[in-house]
Specification:
disordered N terminus
Length: 107
Amino acid sequence: NHYLNFEFIIGNTLNPQTRNNFSISPNPVTKESFARLICENTDEYSFSIINPNGINISQFNTGVLSKGAHEWPVQKLFGHNWPAQGIYLVKIENKHFIQTSKIIVLE
C-alpha cells in the first residue's frame, strides 16, 4: 500500500495554530481508496475535485463535523463522476482556510 499524507497549519484570528490532517490512501487513488480528515475543531468542510484544466468536476460537503477523525470512501468525493486517469487537485475548505493537494487517479 502507498500512503500520501497532507498535513497543514491554518492561521485564523481565534487560534493562530489550528492543526488539521488530511490523507487519501492508497494514493495513487482507486475506487477502494479512503479520504481521512482529522479535525482540530468542530466545523463544516467542503471538498472539491479539480481536473487538470482547472474545472471543478465534483463537490462534497461534509456538514458539521465534530473534533476528531472522519473517513469517507474516495468515491464519495468524486460523486457519480469517476474521472479518467490523471492528476487532480483536492481542495478542502471551510470558513477558516483553504487547502489544495494533488492526487493521482489510476483507474
